Amino acid sequence: MEIFLTVSALTFSALFFAGFRASKAADRLQICIDNGTIDFDGVTITIPSELPVQHKIKLERERYIYLNAARSLFRGAAFLRLHQKHSAN
């Protein structure tokens, strides 16, 4: 019984952390979309080539985390929906 509770607690913690990290990545990407740092046309996330290398690396990492979460376990989750710049949402 103790093993079951331990495994359940670890699984819950891992899922919570993954969801929290994906939500944070989506929030950061949405802020960049609203600021005009990156382009989002409703389907693709495009990072301009004129950004400094460090910023591009950070944005690529956030995009990678967001896309992995959006395509797998958290598919269709409301907290992972990105909106275009100047949208009413």
Task: Produce the secondary structure layout.
Blueprint: H1 2-35, E1 39-40, E2 45-46, H2 53-71
Antiparallel strand pairs: 1-2
What would you note in describing this structure?
With 89 residues, the protein is mainly alpha-helical. The protein has two helices and two strands, in the order αββα. The protein has one domain (2-80). The protein has helices at 2-35, 53-71, and strands spanning 39-40, 45-46. Strands 1-2 form a two-stranded antiparallel sheet. It is elongated, with a radius of gyration of 16 Å. The model has no long low-confidence stretch (mean pLDDT 85).
Outline:
The chain is mostly helical. The protein is built from 2 helices and 2 strands.
Structural class: mainly alpha
Unreliable residue runs: none
**What is the CA-atom radius of gyration, in angstroms?**
16 Å
- Main sheet strand line-up: 1-2
Residue-averaged pLDDT: 85
Query: In percent, how much strand structure appears in the residues?
Result: under 5%
Alpha carbon gap, first and last residue: 46 Å
Tell me the number of structural domains.
Answer: 1
Shape summary: elongated
- Our count of helices gives 2
Helix content: 55-70%
- What is the total tally of β strands? 2
In N-to-C order, the SSE pattern is HEEH
Sheet with most strands: 2 strands, antiparallel
